[in-house]
Amino acid sequence: MSDRMRVVEITEAGGPEVLKPATRDVPEPGHGQVLIRIAWAGVNRPDALQRAGLYAPPPEASDLPGLEASGEIAAVGPGVDGLAVGDAVCALLPGGGYAEYAVTPAAHCLPVPEGMGLKEAACLPETYFTVWSNVFQRGKLSAGERFLVHGGSSGIGTTAIQLAAVFGARVFATAGSAEKCARCTALGAERAINYREEDFVTILREAGGADLILDMVGGDYIPRNVKALADDGRLVQIAFLSGPKVDMNFAQLMTRRLTITGSTLRPQSDLAKARIADALRAEVWPLLAAGRVAPVMDSEFPLAEAAAAHARMESSGHVGKIVLKVA
C-alpha cells in the first residue's frame, strides 16, 4: 500500500469548480477505527454545502468532502473487533470520502448487503442513516399512517418512499416533473405530487392530513407543511434548501398538538451513529438482501471529475444517487 493517495480537495469556498484533484498522505486508523480502501464514494447535498463554505466539518474530521463510501478494510486500529483486513464494507464517514483511503469508526461500518455490488453499497450509509433516524426513530412512522416526503426523486426521497412503503405507511411524495413523479409512484408512493402544478397542502388535507412530513426545503414550505399536517402530526426537518427563516403563527402547534423537530447527522456522537448502524443492520439490511428495497442510481463520475458530479446534483436533474468511482 502506498503512503500517498489521490484525493479531491475544496480549494476555496465556491461552486463546483473549486473541487480540485490533489495528493495527500494516507491516514492511519486510531483506536476503534478502520482504514478503508475506497472503491466508490457517494455524493450528497452536505458535500455541496461544505464546498460552498456553509457546512464546516467537525474539528476532528478530515477537511475533504465525502460522507459515505464502500470498499475493503485496508487496516484496523487498536480496539477493533469483528472486522478484518480484506472485509468488504460500506461506511458512514465523518469526512474524507473523496479519496482513495479514509478512516472511520469501525462501529459505523456495515457489511455489503448480500447480492449487492460495491457501487450500489456506496449509496447506502448517508441516505439510510438519515432516513432511518429521522423517519422511524425521530418521526416514529407507523404502519397505516400518511407520510409525505418532499424531494421524492432525490437520494433521500427515493429511500424514504421505499422504506415507508415496505413498513406499511401510505406514502405521498413531491417532485418537479411528471417523469420524476412517475418514478416516485413506481417506488411505492400512493400519490406523487408535481409541485410545479399542484398544491401538496390541498392534496394532503383532502387525504386526511399527513401524520408525518420529512422536509429538506424549508423556507415557505414550513407553514405549508404545518397546514398539511393532521392533528397530532409531526414535521421532521433535515435541511433548509430554501432558507431556515419564516413568519408563522405557532399557536396552531398547541391547538392541534403538532410536533416540529429535526436533526443533522454529521454532528451527532459516534455512539449515536453506532446505534443507528445497529438498527439498520437488524431492521433494514435483511430487506436490502431480499431485494425489497434498493438504492436508486442516477449516474457515476470518476473521482477526478467530482466537480461535474456536483454540477449534476445541483442541477436537480438527477433521480436517486450520484457516485464517484475511486478504484
Automatic annotation (TrEMBL):
A Pfam match is ADH_zinc_N
Q: Would the keyword Glycoprotein turn up in this protein's UniProt record?
A: no
Q: Which molecular-function annotations from GO does this UniProt entry contain?
A: NADPH binding; oxidoreductase activity, acting on NAD(P)H
Tell me the keywords, alphabetical order: NADP, Oxidoreductase
CDD domains in alphabetical order: p53_inducible_oxidoreductase
Q: Which InterPro entries does the UniProt entry name for this protein?
A: ADH-like_C, ADH-like_N, ER, GroES-like_sf, NAD(P)-bd_dom_sf, Quinone_OxRdtase_PIG3
Would the keyword Ion transport be found if you checked this record's keyword annotation?
no
The name on file for this protein is NAD(P)H quinone oxidoreductase
Q: Which organism is it from?
A: Roseivivax isoporae LMG 25204
